[in-house]
Amino acid sequence: MITLKSKFISLSLILIMFSFSILNGMVDDWGRLSGGIENLFIFFGESLWPPDWSVLEPQNYPVCTTYPLFDFTCSTAWIGMTETIKIAFVSTIFGSIISLPISILAARNLSSLSLSYFARIVLAAARSLPSIIWAIFFVILVGFGPFSGVLAMTIYTVGYLGKLQYEAIEGMNNVPLESARSMGLSKIEIATGVVIPEMANSLISQMIFMFEYNVRHGTVIGIVGAGGIGYYINLYLKFLQYDKVISYLIIIFIVVLIIDFLSISARSYFNEEGDISKPSWWDLFIPKMKRVE
Amino acid sequence: MREDNVVAKVIGKPIVKLIDVEIGYKNGETLVKIPDLEIFPGEIVAIAGPSGVGKTTLLRTIAGLVRSISGTVEVCGRVVPHRPKRGKLGYIPQKLGLVRHASVMHNVMLGANAGQKKEIIHRNKYIQMFSNSVLSLFPSTKAKRKSRDAIEKMRLTDKIGEPIRRLSGGQQRRVATARTLAQEPALILADEFLSELDDETMETVLRGVVTYVKNNNAALLVVEHDVSRAKTMADRLLVIDDGRINPFITEVTMIEVKV
Ligand SMILES: Nc1ncnc2c1ncn2[C@@H]1O[C@H](COP(=O)(O)OP(=O)(O)OP(=O)(O)O)[C@@H](O)[C@H]1O
Ligand SMILES: [Mg+2]
After folding, report:
1. I need a surface site. Which of A227, A242, B59, B166 has the fewest CB within 10 A?
2. What CATH number does the domain located at B1-84+186-259 have?
3. Contact A186 B129 (CB under 8 A)
């Protein structure tokens, strides 16, 4: 007898074997893998370690005028990281303001078929390119700097968040919509009076998630000159100063971890029933399981 | 309850008029056949019948949420698929349809807003719709007063700012009723709106709705699975009888209620 479980296991085995055979076709010499590990040790010992923490020291120019205790705020790491966070914040806010009306138009349970197709195409177009490609595009259009970064990330946010939003809206209970419709409320009234309050928690929680996502992805757009910490990473990569690069990467890792944690905490205030459950640090690494009472 | 429940005088045009209507869902078979049904202003009509026979579907058809398979459905002078004028039709669904994360007041205000006349008239219907919607974001004091009155009638004043998800089932039912009362519709469709209530609360809710219907010459079509309760409140009782004529199609039998 074929049970569901054995079906699942054999399907997984087939998929794994299939992937290995595809990989094998793309790898000409497996010996390169062991060579790669050797290279890693050499590279790590000679150029990556120890990290060069001078990136946390104030730059020579412009002259740092802050109180000496805070002179790290004149360092490239601080300037780059805060710029990345600022870009992420601004684009999340603008992106959600733009995406909300579009996602309401895109939701099948709120608008007509043709309108929802149109809105979906707009969102899909914004989402089709990763933010770094949008960043290249805007660097060409408006020049280097965080403004291009904000434009790029805003567009990507519209596409990505919009999809999350309309899928959430389509999943909402149909009865409130039906009763509002039968009362004769207009579409805008239904959107503002029923859909947004009913979905507020998940919309806010998606926004926080998007901010976290934008901070993570905002670290790379600097590589193409769209502002943020990626600019310095690219700079020192070019000068082969890998020990500085690694300290930027460690800083990014720590900041992303902190923002992840803050995002989980903040979202826990907006979960379905609004019951507050404080997460612990462990939730970053081991997602919380639903406790069975 | 019977004392103030005067038998309806048949005045004017019917608010609901069904002719040769077959109801059901798109791909399914016909659930109920209604040869002829008219509900007049000031009248209270109850529908009873076994579970799953199509009572909710009938209400949803009248509310314009489900298309009838055949026949004409006329509500407040408009033939479906044309909708009744804004706010004319009030619906208390079996599953209530409240905005769970919003307050009692917010939910009742939805009804009160729907009941308000649209103030701005413009020849472009989209401009009119948009400007009125913007206007409705700033609710009138009249709508607020009506909402408070309805909440008071349903004895929920102490819960006015509470989100719906923190209310009991019976309290939620009363919010849905208050929403419809604040709307002041010409026709109320109520789906089992008295379930989950204790006797005293039920009396309050029922009196609130019946008084509104009688004073405003509105019509009430109520689904009530409890036949004895249906008989105490209604002027007429329609029993949807299951499968006697045809195993799939059921006929509506009208039973006059003795006063
Ligand atoms: N959205 C739907 N699409 C298709 N079929 C449906 C849908 N909703 C209900 N039905 C079916 O229609 C039939 C009638 O359902 P309806 O809800 O009208 O019954 P009811 O008389 O109100 O029952 P109850 O007293 O239990 O509320 C049921 O067999 C149900 O399975
Ligand atoms: Mg029902």
Report:
1. B166
2. 3.40.50.300
3. yes
